[in-house]
Amino acid sequence: MGNSYAGQLRSTRFEEVLHNSIEASLRSNTIVPRPVFTQLYLETEQSLIQDGGLNTSAGRALNEDEDDDDGSESNSPPVPYQMKPPPEGCCTTDGFCQAGKDLRLSSLASESLDVPPGFLFVGVKSPSLPDNLLVCAVDRRFLPDERGCNALLGFSGNCMGCGEKGFRYFTEFSNHINLKLSTQPKKQKHLKYHLYRNNQGVLVKGAPICWRGNDGRMRQIRSSLSEGHLASDEQPPNPALAHASHTPGSYTGSHVEAQVAEVPHTLLNGSHAVPSISQPPLNQSGPGRPMATGTHSNAAPPKKRHKGWSPESSGSSLTESTVKPPPSSSLALSALSVSSVIPNGARSESAVLQSSSRGSSNPLSPPDLSLIVPDQLLHACRLQPVIFRGHGPLPQLTGNISDVLVSSLLQSCYMSSQTLPRVYQHYGPSPIQPLSAEMQILLTVYYLVQLGPEQVPLIEDLEQIFMRSWRESHLSEIRQFQQSQTSGTQGRHYGMETPSALPGLPQHLSLPPHNQQPLTPSQLPWLAQLAASSCGEGVVVMGEEVKSLAQGLQQMFARLMEGRLENTNYVVIIVTSPGQETQSCIVATGKHQCRALAESMFSPGDGLKEISHQIYTGAAQELIQYCNSLGQDGNMDSLLDSVSVDNNEPSTPSSSQELAEDRSLNMTHSPKDTHSPKDSHKQSLKDTSSPKVTTSSPKDTCLEYTVEWREVRPIQLAVARKLLSHVCAIADSSTQNLDLGSFNRVSFLILVPPSEVTFQQTVFHLWNSGVLQELGSSDQECMSQKEAERYVVKMDQSAQAQIDSLIQEAQSNSYTLYILVHDHAHWDVCSSSCCSADSGVGLVDKLLNSRQVTEATNILILHVTSFPFALQTQCTRISPYNEINWPSAFSNDVDLYHERTRYFGVSELLETTRSGNSLPLMRYDSSFESMASTLGERFPKLHSAVIRTTVLIRHYCVALMAASGKISSSPNLHKHTSVETMEIVQSLLSAAQQCPSHHGHMILLRIPSLALAVWAHRRLSRVRRQLGLEESFEIILGNPNQALTIGQTFTDQIKIWLKIQDADWIPRTYLELEALPCILILSGAEPLGESLPRSLKYCDLRVISCSYLQRTTLEQELGLAAYLVKAESRPPHNPGPGSDEIESDAEKLSSTDNEEEEGQGDSPPSSTQPLQPCPDGAVDTLPAQSTTSQNVHKGTLDTIQPPSKPQNQVLPQTSTQSFSYLQTAPPHQNQLQVQSYPLGQPNSQLQPLLYGQVQLLSQTNSQPYTQTTSQQQPHSQAQTRSKSASSGSSSPQTSSSHLSCSWARGLSRPPSVLLPRAIYDIITASDSSGLPRCTSFLPHMSVAWASSFRPLLSKMMTCTEQSLYYRQWTVPRSYHMDSCNRAEGRSDNFHPRRLLLSGPPQVGKTGAYLHFLGILSRMLIRLMEVDIYDEEDINSSAQTEGVQYHPPNSPWPNTEIMKKIPFDYTIHDAKYDDISTIYCPGFKPRTDGNPVWQEDVYLRRRTTRIKLSKYAAYNTYHHCEQCHQYLGFNPRYQMYESTLHAFTFTHLLLGEDIQLYFIIPKSKEHYFSFSQPGGQLESLRLPLTSDWSPDCVKSPIFTPTTGRHEHGLFNLYHAMDGASHLHILVVKEYEMAVYKKYWPNHIMLVLPTVFNGAGIGAAHFLIKELSYHNLELERSRRSEGGSPAVDVWPFIILADDSCVMWNAVDLDKPSGPVDHAVSLKQVLQHMEACPDLAHFGLCGIRKWSSCGSTGFKHWEPFSRGHLHDFLFLNVDRSQNIQYNQNRFTCHDVDFTLRLHSAGLLVCKFNNFSVMKKQIAIGGYKTFIIKTKMTDVSTSVGPSQYICAPDSKHLFLATPAQLLLEKYLQHTSQKLFPLSTKNYTHPVLTVDCYLNLGPEVTVCFVSSRPHSVNVGTTGLLFSGLLLCFPDTFVTPGFLKKFTFLKGATLCVISADRSSLRQTVGRLELEEEWRFRLSDEFQTANAKEDRPLFFLTGKHI
C-alpha cells in the first residue's frame, strides 16, 4: 500500500556515500550539503525529457488541472482504484477531514496554525475541489528540494484540521482528508504547492513543489497532431537531423509551442507514424513535472511506485524540459518554428496550435474559450506576431494560426525565478518569499520600456533583473544566511552577491519599494501603464479594460489589423480579477523584433535549410533584382555589360539569368555537390599568364616577404611542459591509472572537425614540426607530407575505421602510449545515442567515449579547444586538476616568457572600441544596417540572412565598380555602397599595386549559409570578370567539405614567393595564401578551426547570425580575427577603469594558472595604450575612415567630413618568417618603425612600439630596426588615390621601397572587424560585474543552466575559477555526450586519462601540443635510459697482457692456474682514483701522479646514457604488470603482511651478543626455519651444494643500503628473469619504517641501534658474521636430518644498491670481445656451477666500461685482484677474515688485501661485468661532518678534524673513525712529508690499509704467520702506520723493515693508555723520537670515544 517501500537502502556502500557527502560539503558554496542517509535512501533518476527526442515519444505535460497519473509507462487504460471505505459516522464532505474539520485554504488562510519543527505547510490538490487547496503539514525530508532532489521515499504528515499527527502513508492520509480518488494516491500528484504567510500574515499559495519526472522515460501519445508534435518529411527518426533536435527550444527544454506543418504522415516500417518531438510543457503547476499533451483518453495506468530524485541531478529546481534558459538569448528562442521542406521544394507554413479539430486540446484554458486569428494577418501587417505566455493559461488559437508564433520561454523564466533554492526558501522563522507574479510583470514592463527600437529582448537580462530585485527585497535575510554560512563557503565568486547595477534597466526607472506594502493586483495595471508611458507607443499595456487574456488578445489583433500598433513593439496584456490569480501575456509586434524572434526559433541547421530553400526556390529573386537597381545611376547589370562591351568581351548573363542558372543547377545538386570555382578559374586563366609573374625582376622583388612556421615559441614550450607535468602527475598519483615507466614509445592520432582545410592545416603543422621524425614514425628522407595524413583524422564517417585500427593496435602494443588529440573539441559534443549513424554528429562520443578507449590503460585523450565551456559541466569527464589553461604572457608588467609576439584577441578588440581617439578595430556599418533594415520591412517573408547577404554583395559589387574606375558614366557609384565597404575594396585593389611583388591583403567574408556563399562567390566572380580584374585578386569559396581551390595564376605567384620548385604543388591551407590579395568567402554553420594568414586585414562578419547568442557561438566568430602581433616592448601597465575583458583571451579572465609565476591577475596590456588602427593611413589613401565611428549614423558618403587634425597611427614593423623551404630577408630590410603616443601622455614622450607582427606557430627572428614617426595626413574625399600621394604623406626618413609593400606594413596591425549592429551592442555592453554581457550568456547550446539563482562571472576570475563556475552552474542536456556520465552514481566520475587544453583562438595551441608529443616521447625514452658510470680503468699499466693463463673461452677458472696468476695489488676502479696507491714490485706509476679530487668526485665522474635492457634492476618507480606481485605494494593487490623476528648470536670481537631483526613478509617465510609455525626464528634456510634448479639461484643476496628507499635498485624481478631468489635488504634501524613502506614484499635485516651512525664496513661485517653463524646453524640442522654438514651452500652475494644491469662478453665477434646484456640469473647460475668454486674465498665480476673489453691483445677470462660492488663471498673459507666494522672508506680494499695475505684465492670473472647506475641521492658516501653544537652543516676543514688531547676545541658530531680517515686522506702530505710523490719509498702499513691520499704510496703487509706479502727486501720505507696493532705485531717483526732517516711513525689506538702501552710493548722509542706535542686525538667529545694517535720521527 502507498509508499510502504520507503527506506530501502541503495546498494551504494556507506563509506562512499559518506565520502561524497563530505566532498560535496567542501565544494558547495550556496547549497546545504545533502545528508548522508538521505543519499542512502535515494535512487538514481535519468533526465526527464530527451531534448530532441523524435518519433519515439512525446513529452507529457502535467498542469494543475490535469489528473493524469505521473508514473505510467504504457498507453493502456487506467487501472481502477477503490479507496478504503471510511469508518462509520465520520465526515465525508469534500474539503473537510474525517473528523469534520475544515481544511480549505480559503478557510484557514487567516487562522493561527502551528507547524512542528521540520514540517512545512503544503497545499493538497483535491479533484473534487478544483478551485481550492487543502492545507496540511508535511515533513520536509519527504519533499524534494528546489532541484527536485533529496526527497526521501515515503510520507510523514499531519492534519491541520483536527490536529491528528503521524500519518506514515499517503494512502492513509488521503483517506483521512477525503480526497476520494479513482487512482492510487501519490504524493507527487497531489502535494502541489508550498504555502507561506505573506507580509499580512495570510497563508497563501507559494512556489510549486518541484517533483521530478518518471526516470527519463517518455510516453508516446498516439493521438493525432497536437501541440508539440512535429510533422516532417524526413523519414529516419533521427533527432540530430529532425528539426526539433537542433531548435533552441529543444536545446533549452523550455516551454514551447510548435508550429506544425500540415503534411501527411510518413510511412515508417510499413505503418503510419507521426514524427514528434518531446514537447516541453505549456504551463506548469509543479515546475519540474512533465505535462500531458493531446487528449486524455489514452492515459496510461499508474506505476506501482515512483522513482526517487537523483542525487546527481542539477542544482536547479526545474528540469531541462521546463525552465532551462535557452542557448540563444532571444526571448522566443525556445518557440519552435517548424517548416517542413516538401519533396518538391515548396514550403508549407501552416501550423496547428491547440486545434481541437485535430484532436489536440489545451488543458490550461477553459474549453469554451477560443480565439480566432485574423485572416491575412501576415499580409496585412507584414509581420508574424510572437505571443509569449506569461501567467495563466492562454486561450485556444484557431483560424489562421500559421501567422502567429507562441513561445513559453518567458513563462519558464517566470517560474524559474519563483522557485527558490531551499536554503533561501525555508531559512529562518519567516521564509524568504519569491517574487510575486505582479512584481515579475512590472519588472518585465520596465525592461521592455528601456529596450531600443531595434533591440531584441534577452532572457539573460530579464533573469538578472529578477534576481537583483529579489535580492534587494530580501537583502537582510540573505546576508544573515550568508553570514551563517561563511565558515562553509569556499571562494569569493559563488555567493549570491548583489550586483552593483541592474543590467538593462535605466537608472531613472526606480523599482517599487519592496520592504513596504507589496504590489497588489489592483495596482499592477496602472503602474505598468505609468512605466510604459515613458516610451510613447513603444510598449502598450492593456490592463484595466480587459477581463481575460482572450479579450486582450482579440483587441490586440484588432488593433494590429487596423494599423494602430504600427509604432508599437510590445503589447502587454494584464488580467486582474478579484479573487483570482493575475494573468498575463506579452505579444511582440515590432517588425524587427518579430523577424528576429521568428528566425531564432529555427535551429542553426534548420535556419540554413530555410535559407537554402529560399535561394533555390527563387524566393529571393525579387530582392536580387531590386538590389541591382542603382536608382538614377542605372542598373548594375547594364553598367557591367557596358564595361564588357567596351572590353570586347562576350556578353554575360544578367543577374536574373544567372540566378535561374544557379537555381537549375542546384535543383540537381545539393550544396555539398556544388562545383567549386576551380573550373571557371581554369577557363578564364589557363591561357593567360600574369604580368606579375612574367615581368618580375630582382630589382622589382619585394624583399620584405618572409614566412616561418617551424620554431616553437617560448610560451608554447611552457604549455607543452605543463601538459607533460600533468601527464606525469597522473602517473605519479596513487591511482596507478598511467604507468609511464612501462611505455617505450609514443604514437598519436589527431582528430579534427570535418573541414578539409583544417585537416590539411593540421597535417601541414605536423609535418613542419618535426614530431614525426622525432617519434621515429618514419624515415625522415623517405617520408612525404602526404604520408603524414594518416596521423590526422577528419571526424566524419571515415574516422570509425581509423579509430578502430588504433584501438586494435593499442591492445596489441601494451608498451606504446597512444595519445588521442581531440582538436576543436567543442565542435561535436552530441551523444551518439541521440544521433543517427549518417548524421555526422555524435562521432566523438561514439569513438572517444567507447569502452575500448576509456578502459585502455595505454590510451590518453587530450581535448584541445578555445571554448571549453561545453566540457565543463556538472557531469564532465575531465577532472579540474587535468585542465591546462593557456597562461598569460605578462604578470605585473613582467614578461614571463620573453615573447616577441603578443596575442591580440577579443579583449584587445573591445579595448579599441573604448579608446575614443581613433577608429576602433571592431565596429559596425550604420549605412549597411539601415539598408538591410529597410529591405527587411519590404520583404517580410525572406530570411534576414538572405537580405543582409544580398545587400552586402551589392555593396561589394558597387565598390568594385567604383574603385576600378572603369565605369565613367556613373561618377556617384560610391553613394550606393558604405564607407566601410569602399575602404575594404580600395585597400584590396591598391595594396597589390604598390608592392613590386604584388603582395596584398586577405578580406574575410563570413557567410554561414553555403547556398548564399556559393551565390555570393558567383556574383562577385562575375563582376570581377566583367571589370577585367581577374588577375588583381582572387575570390575563394571556403567550403568546409571541399579542398581549397585557387586559380593557376595565383598558385604560380605563391610558388614564386615561397620559392617552391615542385610543379605539382598547390596550396591546401589558408595559411599558405600569405600575402595573396583575395576575398575569402568562408561558409559553414560555424568556423571549424581554420587558421588565417597574417595578411588578413578585414574580417567582415556583417552577415553572421544574430539569432543564436551563446558565448561559444559569439566568441567563435570573433576568434577569426585573433592575431599575434609583434611586441618589442611593453608599456607601463596602468589599467584604466574600462579595461573590461572577455574570456578566451589569455588575459584577466582567461589569464589562468600562473600562480607560480604571477601574483594577482592584471588587466590586458591594451588597457592604457590601445592599438591605434591604421588602415594603411600614411600610405594607402582611403576614404576618410578615421571620422567614421560606430556612434555616427552614416548616410551617404557626402556627409562624411575629413578629419580636422592629424591622427597618430601605428605603422608596422616587419619581421622575418619563412617556411622550411623559404627565403629569409636580409637584416637591413626591416627598418620601418613608427612611434605612437599613448593616451594621456604628451606627444613628446616617446613610447615603445606596442604591437608588431603576427606569428602563427613559431617564434620570430626579429631584425634590428630604427624608429621613425609617421602621421596620417588629412585626406579629403576627392583626393586622388595614388601611390605618389601616399608616399608623399609619409615621413621623409622612410624610403619608398620600405613603404611600398602594404602587406609588410600590415603585419603589425590586427585585422579590423565589422559586426552586425545587434551583436556589436551586445559585445560592447557590460554587465554588473564589468564583463561583456555575452559572458553571462549560456556558454553552449548543448548545456543548460543549473539554476536561475546563480551569480555572475566575476571579472577577477582566473580560467580555473571560471571552469569551477561552469562545473557548478551548468548541466549537460540529454543529447550531450556527458549527460550519461552521472549514471554510475558518482559526482566526480572523471576519466583518469583525459586532459583538457584550452586557450584563445589562433594563439598556437597546435604547436604546443605537437611539441608536447615530442617531449613526451623524449621523456619516455629518458625513462628507459639510465646514466651508467663509464670510466676507463686507472693504473692500467700494471695489467699484464703478455701471458695467457686461461683460454679466452674458458667457462670456469682452474684452481691450479689461478694460483700461478700473480695477485694484482694495484687498484683499477676509477672511483678509487683519489686513494693511496698500493706498492707492488714492478709497477710503474704515472709520472704526473694521480690528481687530487674533491669530496664530490662521484658526482662528477664520467657517465654514459644506456637504454635499459629487459634484465635491468629497478627502483620503486617501476611497477609493470609483471612486477606487481613481486613488489607487493600496488593498490590493486592486497598489502603483504610482515612479521618482525629477533635473531641473536655471539661474536668474540664485539664481546657481547648481537641482536638483529628480520622483517619477513608472509610470502617469504618459507626461506626461513622456525621452531614452530609462527614461532622463534632459528635460521635462514640454505640449499645444499648438490641442489640445482634452472629457475632458482642458491646464493642469498644481501644489499646494504641507506638513504635510497626510493632510488635503490632493489627490484630484481626482471634482472633475475623471474627466477626464485632470496634477496635481503640490510637497513639501519632508523630507516626501517620507510624502507618497509616502499618495499613491503622484501625481507629486511635491521642493524642494531649502535650501528645507526656506522659506515659500510659495519654492514658488511654483520652480514658476513651473521652468514657464517647461520651456516653453522644450517649445518647443525641438516646433520640432524641426516645430510652431510659440509654440503650446505656457503656462498653469499654482497651487492651494491646501484647495480642496474649485467653483461657477458661475446668473444665470437670479429671485431673483438663485445658486451651484451644478460640476466643476473645467468651470471649467478654460471658462477654457482663452477666446479672448483669451494676453493675460492672471494669471487667477483668486472665493472663495465665502454672500452673495458677492447684493446687487449690477449683476453684473460679470469684474474686475481681487487673486487668491488658485486662480491661472491665464501663465508666458510673466509671465516677468520672479517670486515673492519669501524671503516667508512676503502673497506673492500682493506678486506681484499687481508683475504689475499691469508692465502685465500680471489678470482675476478672478466667475462661478466656489472653496470652501476649513477645515483646522487643517499648511499654510504653521504656523511656530513657537523659540529657538536648545532645540527646544521658547517664549513669544517680537515685540519679541524683532530686536536690536542685535553684542549678546548670545537668538538664535532661525527664518528671518530670517519674523522681519522678523512684527516689522513687530506693531510697525509704533512704527516708523511718524505712519502709525497715518492713511490719507491712507500709508507709501511701493517694489517690495515688506510687511505693516505693519492700522493702517498703505501705498502701493505700482514703480521700473521704464513701470510702472503710482497717482497720488501732492500726497500726503504718513508713511514710506518700502525692502526690498532694486535699481538701478532712484535718488535722483532718491525725490525725486519728498514726506514729512511726522518721517516714518520703514526700509531693509532682507542685511548691514551693503550697508545702508551703499544709504544712500550713494541719498543718504539729505541728507533723513533717522540715529542709531547706529537700526540693527537680526533675532535670528539669524551662520550663519543675519540681515537688517539701519536707521531714520531725515525732516528
Task: Walk me through the topology.
Elements (H helix, E strand, L loop, with lengths): L13 H14 L8 H5 L64 H4 L10 E7 L7 E7 L17 E3 L10 H7 L10 H4 E7 L5 E6 L34 H4 L1 H5 L2 E2 L9 E3 L2 E3 L46 H4 L16 E2 L5 E2 L21 E4 L3 H5 L4 E6 L4 E4 L5 E4 H10 L3 H4 L11 H14 L8 H15 L1 H10 L39 H9 L6 E4 L6 H14 L7 E6 L7 E6 L2 H10 L3 H13 L4 H8 L7 H11 L8 H14 L9 H8 L5 H4 L19 H19 L12 E8 L3 H14 L1 H4 L17 E3 L4 H14 L3 E8 L19 H6 L2 H4 L4 E7 L17 E3 L4 E2 L2 E2 L5 E4 L1 H10 L6 E3 L1 H13 L5 H21 L14 H16 L7 E5 L3 H17 L7 E5 L9 H11 L19 E5 L13 E5 L10 H8 L4 E4 L80 E2 L62 E2 L10 H6 L7 H4 L2 H5 L5 E4 L1 H8 L18 E3 L13 H11 E3 L21 E5 L6 H19 L1 E5 ...
Parallel strand pairs: 11-13, 12-14, 15-16, 18-19, 18-20, 20-21, 21-37, 22-37, 26-34, 27-29, 27-30, 28-29, 30-34, 39-57, 45-46, 45-48, 46-47, 51-54, 56-57, 56-58, 58-59
Antiparallel strand pairs: 1-2, 1-4, 2-3, 4-5, 6-14, 7-8, 9-10, 12-17, 16-17, 23-24, 25-31, 32-33, 35-36, 38-40, 41-42, 42-47, 43-44, 48-53, 49-50, 49-54, 51-53, 52-54, 55-60, 59-61, 60-61
Helix pairs in contact: 10-13, 12-13, 12-15, 19-32, 24-42, 25-42, 31-32, 32-33, 32-34
